[in-house]
């Protein structure tokens, strides 16, 4: 093939790799609230039989399609236990695109501790434009619920959407998906912002910013 053709093929593969955007979403909250189960439900489609406390971080990825664009949602399932997370905290927050805070609806302490998790997040210079959502997990344990109506005003006051759900109950799986899909939709809408990030990482890459007509996000 001619050098021109070679150059063209390099250009198109470069464009492809840029166009497959990766959204980094971190999942934060006390140990045992179900962060691993929620991320597994979204990326693997089922509830794990058995989990162990996460050490450091587990990455799980899922490719999703939004309005014809394939996006890789990279979920960082973080450790809730201090001793398993302390060396990793800087990595969690670096270049994060969205944050999911999780508490256990049957455990008041996990709800109260949200304040500390939010402060940790703010302390790592996570910009206000990074979307954050709140998830109350284990709603299947209906007779053990401790955190009830107070979750909504808390979420509102922090400008977060609230999802009350269960990683365990298969009837809730769509609701679990919608946590991550709603974030992916919001991030997709911040297109220019993410393309600028790509440009910064590699000075040679120049992307013309699409002036798309305002799209109808399905979420
Ligand atoms: N009933 C019920 N149990 C759940 C649910 N989600 C998680 N669990 C259970 O809660 C326990 C902890 O779940 P994990 O997902 O490992 O918790 P984690 O937040 O990842 O904990 P760390 O990794 O230590 O931070 C496990 O025994 C799960 O089976 C749920 O929706 N309902
Ligand atoms: Mg875990």
TrEMBL record:
Its cofactor is Mg(2+). It is an enzyme of class 3 (hydrolase). GO terms for molecular function: G protein activity; GTP binding. GO terms for biological process: Rab protein signal transduction. InterPro entries: P-loop_NTPase, Rab33A/B, Small_GTP-bd, Small_GTPase. It comes from the Eukaryota. SMART domains: RAB (SM00175), RAN (SM00176), RAS (SM00173), RHO (SM00174). The keyword ATP-binding does not apply. It catalyses: GTP + H2O = GDP + phosphate + H(+). GO terms for cellular component: Golgi apparatus. Keywords: GTP-binding, Hydrolase, Lipoprotein, Membrane, Methylation, Nucleotide-binding, Prenylation. Its EC number is 3.6.5.2. It is a lipid-anchor. Pfam families: Ras. It is found in: Endomembrane system. Its main location: membrane. Belongs to the small GTPase superfamily. Rab family. PANTHER family: PTHR47978. This is small monomeric GTPase.
């Amino acid at each position: 093939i001619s050098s021109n053709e070679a150059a063209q093929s390099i250009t198109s593969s470069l464009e492809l790799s840029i166009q497959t955007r990766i959204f980094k979403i971190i999942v934060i909250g006390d140990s045992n609230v179900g962060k691993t189960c929620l991320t597994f439900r979204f990326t693997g489609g089922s509830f794990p039989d058995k989990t162990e406390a996460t050490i450091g971080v587990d990455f799980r990825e899922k490719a999703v399609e939004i309005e014809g664009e394939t996006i890789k949602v990279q979920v960082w399932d973080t450790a809730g236990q201090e001793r398993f997370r302390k060396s990793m905290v800087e990595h969690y927050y670096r270049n994060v695109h969205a944050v999911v805070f999780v508490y256990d609806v049957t455990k008041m302490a996990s709800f109260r501790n949200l304040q500390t998790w939010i402060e940790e997040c703010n302390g790592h210079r996570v910009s206000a434009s990074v979307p954050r959502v709140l998830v109350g997990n284990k709603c299947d344990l209906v007779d053990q619920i401790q955190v009830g109506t107070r979750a909504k005003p808390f979420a509102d006051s922090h400008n977060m959407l609230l999802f009350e759900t269960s990683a365990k109950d298969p009837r809730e799986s769509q609701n679990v998906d919608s946590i991550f899909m709603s974030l992916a939709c919001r991030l997709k809408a911040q297109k220019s912002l993410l393309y600028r990030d790509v440009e910064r990482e590699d000075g040679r890459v120049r992307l013309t910013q699409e002036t798309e007509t305002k799209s109808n996000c399905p979420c």
